[in-house]
Write a structure and sequence with these properties.
Blueprint: H1 3-29, H2 45-51, H3 58-71, H4 78-98, H5 117-129, E1 135-139, H6 145-156, E2 161-165, H7 168-174, E3 185-189, H8 196-208, H9 217-227, E4 230-234, H10 240-251, E5 256-258, E6 271-273, H11 280-288, E7 317-322, E8 329-334, E9 345-348, E10 359-361, E11 364-370, H12 379-391, E12 396-399, E13 406-410, H13 411-415, H14 420-434, E14 441-447, H15 450-473, E15 482-486, E16 498-500, H16 513-522, E17 528-532, E18 536-538, E19 543-544, H17 545-554, E20 580-585, E21 590-595, H18 608-612, E22 624-627, E23 647-649, H19 652-670, H20 688-698
Parallel strand pairs: 1-2, 1-4, 2-3, 4-5, 5-6, 7-10, 8-11, 9-14, 21-23
Antiparallel strand pairs: 7-13, 11-14, 12-13, 15-16, 15-17, 18-19, 20-21, 20-22
Helix pairs in contact: 1-3, 1-4, 1-10, 3-4, 4-10, 5-8, 6-7, 12-14
The structure holds iron/sulfur cluster (SF4) and nickel (II) ion (2 copies).
Residues 327, 454, 458 line the site of one nickel (II) ion.
InterPro entries: ACS_CODH_B_C, CO_DH/Ac-CoA_synth_bsu, CO_DH/Ac-CoA_synth_bsu_3_sf, CODH_A_N, Prismane-like_a/b-sand, Prismane-like_sf
Pfam family, one: CdhC
Protein name: CO-methylating acetyl-CoA synthase
Length: 709
Amino acid sequence: MTLFDRVFSGNDAVYGLTEGAIDAAIAQHGEDKAVSFPDTAYSLPCYYSVTGSKVTTLKELKEALGVVKTLMTREKRLNDAFMSGVATALCAEFIEVLKYIDGAVPYEEPCYGHLADAVIRELGVPLVTGDIPGVAVILGTAPSVEEGVALVKSYQSQGILVTLVGGIIDQVKEAGMNTGANVRVIPLGKDVTAVIHVVSVALRAALIFGNVTPGDAGTLMKYTMDRVPAFVNAFGPLDDVVVACGAGAIALGFPVITNETENIFRVPKSLIVQEDVSKFNATSLEARDIKIKITNIDIPVAFASAFEGEIIRRKDMRVEFDGSRVDCAELVHTCDASEVEDHKITVVGPEVDEMEDGSKNSIAYVVKVSGKNMQPDFEPVIERKFHNYINCIEGVYHTGQRDMQRIRISHAAFDAGFRIKHIGEVLYTQVKNEFDAVVDKCEVVIYTDPAECTRVRHEVAIPIFEKRDDRLANLTDESVDVYYSCILCQAFSPSHVCVVTPERLGLCGAVSWLDAKATYELDPNGPCQVITKERPINEELGAYEDVDEAVQKLSQGALEHVTLYSIMQDPMTSCGCFECICGIEPFSNGVVIANREYAGMTPLGMTFSEMASMTGGGVQTPGFMGHGKHFIASKKFMKAEGGIERIVWMPKELKEFIADKLNATAKDLYGIDNFTDMIGDETVATDPETLVGFLTEKGHPALALDPMM
Ligand code: SF4
Ligand code: NI
Ligand code: NI
């Protein structure tokens, strides 16, 4: 059989199954039965991306199958094979969506099945920073458990996001490997059709970040090929269905690497035979042109971004350090060059060996740095990265910051030889790696002696934190001479530009004005550039000729005007990875804000995902705006429309998170006490009528404001 025959026959087989499954579902439920995947605003995401039509009922699903049939041409040309591959993928999506009828939960631990829109938005920043350098799709059953696990681990140690389909899931489980989105190994499902759930991620990325018009299949495939660094590893023997799915992957630009040698012909850079599974990793990275940043740190356990989300449970921990109970601190301290001995690491106090198993202890580490270009403003920027550095250590867990950090070291890490001094090694190496433009010398002192920790915390760290907070409190948009642009997300959203000011951080929540400033100083040709603010047009709107010029240039002409403080007039664009989305609520003259973690309904009749789908991809959408959590309490939040008194609803969790600062701002701006009590949440209302009733009762100021549209 030729490869064409195999693709066509696999496609026909899946088509037959799909038709049968849809007919059976119609016979059982009737053709008006609703079909959908949970937590997505894109209907059947793959079908919608490719055709531009949404499918909501079994009847429409049946009609859609007719459209799929038109892709299944049978000439022996490459394009016919690719389109049959796409048709196979769409059939897989149809089969998968039937599993979700009536709100069923078809996948159970450890499998994920369909992935929510919010998951894709979370991937935005790590993908653009290269923190996640690629996405591997591993399909089938490895020749042995050891080879399968070794392959998965090899990607994991490179930070690559791994998705698993088929027998490999049981193999990984058999080996006792931890899986889950938090360690970047995501078992999708055991049926081959489950592979559609990762395809769905890639296609939604094009809609969410790329502003690709649904139905524009050409642009869609170009986007996935150019910007989604995915590839497939398929273990032989391959059946024709897998071969047909592989053709679909290649159509999207994802190379397929397999150890199958029979009835396969090779397509350069696309269909690659690699008989040696231990070389799958290298072959895949080369085929997809993925470069891995290697960090060699001299510690006895692995260090990789994939371990950032790893959690160490109480029963698995050897020791714990807990700033909420005992004196702890983490600090970057700028010193004179003569006071710093490069790469010196000192532990003052007991090592882990001398601490009781399962005990709670003090820890304080001071990272002393010196450098001609070092500025105290960079201290908090470097310090905030400690969380990420320490978390990347396999078997070590870190939360919190400043003097409230908490660290756990697992039994496994301890048994492997990991000690406190290695935390110093990690901090030293990473600070030197990432901040080499400003840090010439770096020395780490780690205190575990409780009295020393108390001294460092109260006499050294806290006074410095207080000084910094004063500086931050005085950092307003008016008090600085320049703003910064950030275009990191252009890797996925080609025309998106964030303008970062002291009072308006980047919408991802990860880039403050100080971060942007540091990024600029570290790399003057990098993603953050200076924007002057010498020619204001309208201070209420936050409109400047300088800002307009910068966004015009940085968006390659896609944007002409951007205001900093308005949601209605030339609002800032969104890439897709925003922490929150804000949208107009017409009945109350206010706005509703939803954060990405919130999965429920809002009074707009939309979920976060649905609100989020109203904007993104670097386009301006008056009435909807993506933003960071900390922007909510800012005096500049929607200043042009009246400011925070427009906020009428937020999920409870977000409201509580921001309450102190938001209340302080409301008091300052309008003299209102406990403003957050006036704001609705999901426990009060998820529809506009109940919400307006609540706001009326509370005397919410938005009701008296002019309508926004
Ligand atoms: Fe992306 Fe804006 Fe965050 Fe930069 S500041 S990483 S462009 S969302
Ligand atoms: Ni104390
Ligand atoms: Ni982004």
